[in-house]
Amino acid sequence: MAAGADATRGGVRRVGGPPTPANGGTTADPALLLGRARDLLDRAGQPGELPGSVNPLLALCGVAGAVLAYALGTGARALGVGYGGDLAVGMPVLALVVTLLGPLIGLVPARVLADRRHAVLGPRPITVVLGAGVLATALLLILGR
Fold it and tell me: What pLDDT shows up at residue 26?
């Protein structure tokens, strides 16, 4: 080696070959090790299921969607009454449609929650959100009369 090369390496020359693995992995087939690494990466990259501990948050998403839709429906009804005429007839129908879609609105924050946890919004979480949303919508419609 030249003197300039020694200066860039800190003045230390390497003696011998590269170090060997500590656990004696020199006999393993590299293709097998790469295959195992690929399998591990594939399993790590796949989203899992949401745990049962998030069910209260999912139910809260359904209730929040129902309350939001009910509030929009109440506003639409008030707008129809305030302006009268054709709006007095059409806005209550629109308000009912919006109110009945309330449980579906709860799926939006539930999806965000699942994405943040790197999980799939499967049938169980969807059922929890929609069930809580339908129950809340029914209660709001009964109590609102």
Answer: 55
Structural domain harbouring 57: 53-143
In a domain, 66, yes or no: yes
CA distance 139 to 14: 78
Q: What is the model's pTM?
A: 0.65
User: Rounded to an integer, what is the distance from CA 42 to the centroid of its chain?
Assistant: 19
42-84 per-position pLDDT tens digit = 777 677 788 888 999 999 999 999 999 999 999 988 888 888 7
Quote the CA–CA distance of 78 and 15 in Å, as a whole number.
87
CA nearest neighbour of 71 among 104, 102, 93, 107: 102
Angle between helices 107-116 and 55-83 (to 10 degrees): 150
pLDDT value at residue 106:
93
In this structure, how many other beta carbons lie within 10 angstroms of the beta carbon of residue 36?
A: 11
Report how many domains make up the chain.
1
- CA-CA distance, 66 to 72, in Å (whole number)? 10
